[in-house]
TrEMBL record:
Pfam families reported in the protein's UniProt record: adh_short_C2
GO cellular component: peroxisome
EC number: 1.3.1.124
Residue ranges, compositional bias (Polar residues): 287-309
UniProt organism field: Nannochloropsis gaditana
Name this protein carries in UniProt: 2,4-dienoyl-CoA reductase [(3E)-enoyl-CoA-producing]
Length: 309
């Protein structure tokens, strides 16, 4: 199987672009870095753990992706500046920033310490802001325009159990996407988001649905996804390639949900084969109603003009 067999895009679509991917040492961040690289971009990945970064760059090199790494913590603005400087120094420019670094753990709200809440807010939200601000000057002179992709989530569409911190952080990330999309469009910088649903084989899933048998978890989760399967890291990474390409060139301030319809999920109230029959029976009953047999006392009260008026 070709390394790009899953991609509908030509391999040179991102040639000449330079992408800095935070959290690029593992999980979704790595796969986004990989796919951008396989489509021609030069890659710099940033993360806290040197061993992960070295291994990731080694894997990218095996696929002929030109890549380097920088160790740093997105919570520290000086680390953000250093990463952008390295990208420009090593590759001559920076055109794409992917904010994929994130933190999360399951915890009931009443057990979440202030430090735990703050830590996730700082990695996800402050980190995305630090990186975006640090990249601004380089992105605004990028030849094909600058782009920021914030990896978000759907946790805060409605609400999600035991992730108060991550839900608040990702809601704020979506707000950053819109605000910076508004403010930086005139500088030729697009700011977009991708909100993944449950993605198989990621550190995030391992933390949120811990189990000895991950395929059993995948099956269970897939039942809550209208498209009937867990997402893959490639689903997310190819969405990123699309947003980086000229096909996404008029999109800014928007977060693309890539979740197979997961956040829309509601339990099926009635088996599909019973809907039509039941609905018609109810309908004919309702049409057979007369004021004497169909209107409730309450309805009559409401429809009767008030004597006090
Ligand atoms: C309760 C916890 C906890 C847990 C940490 N804390 N884990 N509280 N339950 N399981 C608390 C600590 O007790 C501490 O508060 C505070 O959080 C900070 O913890 P530290 O270990 O000091 O922080 P740090 O070393 O910076 O680690 C940050 C981290 C860690 C978020 C806790 O897990 C991390 O670095 N994660 C990065 C990788 C990751 O999580 N990837 C998955 C992302 S998935 P106190 O008060 O006790 O000192 C993702 C997807 C979202 O984002 C959407 C999914 C659909």
């Amino acid at each position: 199987m070709s390394r790009l067999s899953a991609s509908p895009f030509v391999t040179s679509i991102l040639a000449g672009r330079v992408a800095l991917v935070t959290g690029g040492g593992s999980g979704i961040g790595f796969e986004v870095a990989r796919q951008l690289g396989l489509h021609g971009a030069k890659i710099i990945i940033m993360g806290r753990r040197k061993s992960f970064l070295e291994k990731a760059v080694g894997l990218l090199a095996q696929e002929a992706v030109q890549a380097t790494w920088v160790q740093g913590d997105v919570r520290q603005s000086e680390d953000a500046d250093k990463a952008v400087e390295k990208a420009v120094h090593d590759f001559g420019s920076l055109s794409i920033l992917v904010n994929a670094a994130a933190g999360n753990f399951l915890v009931a709200g009443e057990d979440l310490s202030t430090k735990g809440f703050r830590t996730v807010m700082e990695i996800d939200t402050v980190g995305s802001f630090n990186m975006s601000r640090a990249a601004f000057k380089a992105l605004k002179v990028a030849a094909e325009g600058g782009l920021i992709i914030n990896i978000s989530a759907t946790l805060h569409y409605g609400a999600t159990w035991y992730q108060t911190h991550a839900s608040a952080a990702k809601a704020a990330v979506d707000s950053l996407t819109r605000s910076l999309g508004l403010e930086w469009g005139s500088f030729g910088i697009r700011v977009v988001g991708i909100a993944p649903g449950p993605i198989a084989d990621t550190p995030g899933m391992a933390k949120l649905a811990p189990a000895d048998d991950s395929s059993a978890v995948d099956e269970l989760v897939a039942e809550m996804i209208p498209l009937g399967r867990m997402g893959t890291k490639t689903d997310i990474a190819l969405a990123a390639v699309f947003l980086c390409s000229s096909a996404g060139g008029f999109i800014t301030g928007e977060t693309l949900v890539v979740d197979g319809g997961h956040w829309l999920f509601k339990p099926q109230m009635l088996p599909r084969e019973l809907v039509s029959d039941m609905s018609r029976r109810v309908e004919s009953k309702s049409r057979a109603m007369t004021p004497s047999n169909g209107l409730s006392a309450n309805a009559e009260t409401i429809s009767r003009p008030s004597s006090r008026l």
